[in-house]
Amino acid sequence: MYIRLFTVLIVLSGCDNSSTEAPAAANAGLPPAHCDAISSLSVCIQYDSRDAANASCPDFKGQVSDGACPTEQQSGSCAHDGKVRNYYKSGGSPQGTSYAERHCTQALSGTFTAP
């Protein structure tokens, strides 16, 4: 979903590279940073700020990067407490869609979205 939004925004921003507003428009709607802990816990968490990602990511033994989490092998996502936790079918602790939904709604009191 984020990839599609990003592509649409790039197309809508036009081809004129002289504008200083194009990079900001291309990044509109994308989370500023995420914590990739797919290899260890099969989760990637998107944050509203890079500072929040840097503060929380060590708890998940992940790596902070800019932008949205990858969508490959995703089994669902959970919006909760101002962030989005993405669950994956690959990595250190693979999780299916039914587990992801149950964990999201019961343990995190979040809103689940299937891939």
Mean pLDDT equals: 81
The fraction of residues in strands falls at 25-35%
Number of helices: 5
Give the radius of gyration.
15 Å
Question: Structural class of the secondary structure composition?
Answer: alpha+beta
Summarize the biggest pleated sheet.
6 strands, antiparallel
Percent helix range: 25-40%
Task: Report a brief summary of the structure.
The chain has 115 residues and is α+β, with helices and mostly antiparallel strands. The protein is built from five helices and six strands; from the N terminus they run ααβαβαβββαβ.
Question: How would you describe this structure to a colleague?
Answer:
38% of the residues lie in helices and 26% in strands. A six-stranded antiparallel beta sheet has the order 3-1-2-5-4-6.
